[in-house]
Amino acid sequence: MASPIQQNLEKKNAEYSADFSKGDLPLPPGKHYLVVTCMDARIDPCAAFGIDLGDAHVIRNAGGCVRDALRSVVISQQLLGTREILVVKHTDCGMLTFTNDDIRAKVKENLGAAAAVELATLDYLPFPDVEQAVRDDLSFLKEHTAATRGDTVVSGWVYDVKTGKVKSVA
């Protein structure tokens, strides 16, 4: 039996696909850029950043971390021709609320010692300051020449979850 979430997916997908007409879009993103942003459910990157289907790659993970997205960034840049990267973190991010030790203790408490040992060396990449985390990601991209093409434009942003506005971070 399908869960309510699975049932919703099937229902909404049936509605979406009933008049779907964009099946012929090319594989590379049409506007040749990618966005790395957080998985936070309060962010709708397509609506907030004006991304239409086929325009851009949107890579989401906890904290919008470039290091965590590196594999996808390299593929997007080197195989699919993107030439610009937007790094977008946000206010009130969950990554501001814990340390690696905190999450390791939670894993041990919830899943036991074996899981804690298995994940003991995983860096969850929390950060104490969102703007500095953007700057750190921009520096990371500049240091990793395999992640970008020679002509890649890179910029950093903070999205405010209360207002929906973005602010450039240099």
UniProtKB/TrEMBL annotation:
It comes from Apiospora aurea. Reversible hydration of carbon dioxide. Its cofactor is Zn(2+). This is Carbonic anhydrase. The keyword Zinc applies. It catalyses: hydrogencarbonate + H(+) = CO2 + H2O. SMART domains: Pro_CA. It comes from the Eukaryota. Its EC number is 4.2.1.1. Keywords: Lyase, Metal-binding, Zinc. InterPro entries: Carbonic_anhydrase (IPR001765), Carbonic_anhydrase_sf (IPR036874). Pfam families: Pro_CA. Belongs to the beta-class carbonic anhydrase family.
